[in-house]
Write a structure and sequence with these properties.
The chain has 62 residues and is mainly α. It has 3 helices and no strands. It has one domain: Helix Hairpins, CATH 1.10.287. GO terms for molecular function: structural constituent of ribosome.
Length: 62
């Protein structure tokens, strides 16, 4: 998700996307430990998306 897309979401939507992204990140890390993913850069991208969501959520809550 791009920063511009995240800015247009409400705080509740960001929390929902954040929970979804964290669940996907956990699942992806586990799958990568069992057998390497075809594209392991997806893990890094998802981690950065989670950070973007957390940052925007903090900004909206202030």
């Amino acid at each position: 998700m791009k920063k511009a897309e995240i800015k247009n979401l409400s705080a509740e939507d960001i929390q929902a996307k954040l929970a979804e992204a964290k669940a996907e990140f956990t699942k992806m890390k586990l799958a990568h430990r069992i057998s390497p993913l075809e594209n392991p850069i997806q893990i890094r991208d998802l981690r950065k998306t989670i950070a973007r969501l957390n940052t925007e959520l903090t900004t909206k809550q202030q």
